[in-house]
């Protein structure tokens, strides 16, 4: 009898269970709010009609302030002073999410600093990846290799706007007008 390999398991729709199963204590606190380099990173997740998605989950990953991978990256333990480089936040009923973290440094000399953002939400068959670059890094953003490959008319969907002292707003739109540019995990551009 010939040997056969099993086929790939088909995807299933993500959620709405994530709002109950994945959040954990301190998940949105990548760095303590009182950290000397602390920032607030926040925004809204909305659908194609602009309506909030109240049961989404947002994850962020990023380097430290010097652009180095954080050794505690992915840590679920929160001790109140260590910057972990990873956070997970449930979206509230109004579609809002918020993290306390730090502004990362660029990971390469020719790159701009960014936060990798992952979105899980109802109706998605796969989670979505994007990047949030910082609006006050325009020189670095102009030279960034990935941003340079994005259609200039859509590039602003990857920019977190500084909306207050040490605060950046990054709204995520899953489809429609103003849809956020999404990436493959290897940073290939889609959408």
Summarize the entry for a quick read:
This protein has 191 residues and is mainly beta. Helix content is 8%, strand content 29%. It has one domain (23-190): Protocatechuate 3,4-Dioxygenase, subunit A (Sandwich), CATH 2.60.130.
What can you tell me about this protein's structure?
The chain is mostly beta strands and 191 residues long. It has a single domain, classed as Aromatic compound dioxygenase (Protocatechuate 3,4-Dioxygenase, subunit A). The protein has helices at 18-21, 138-143, 145-149; strands spanning 38-46, 57-61, 86-90, 96-102, 114-120, 128-134, 159-164, 167-169, 172-173, 182-183, 189-190. The longest helix is centred in the C-terminal third of the chain and has 6 residues, at 138-143.
Distance between the termini: 45 Å
Please count the helical segments.
3
Q: Taking Cα atoms only, what radius of gyration do you get, to the nearest Å?
A: 17 Å
CATH third-level topology = Protocatechuate 3,4-Dioxygenase, subunit A
Look at the structure and give the CATH class. Mainly Beta
Following the backbone from N to C, one meets helices and strands in this order, namely HEEEEEEHHEEEEE
Helix content: under 10%
Given the C-alpha coordinates, what overall shape results?
globular
Beta strands, count: 11
Architecture, according to CATH?
Sandwich
Q: Count the domains.
A: 1
Largest sheet: 9 strands, mixed
The CATH superfamily name is Aromatic compound dioxygenase
- The secondary-structure class comes to mainly beta
Low-confidence stretches: none
Average residue pLDDT: 86
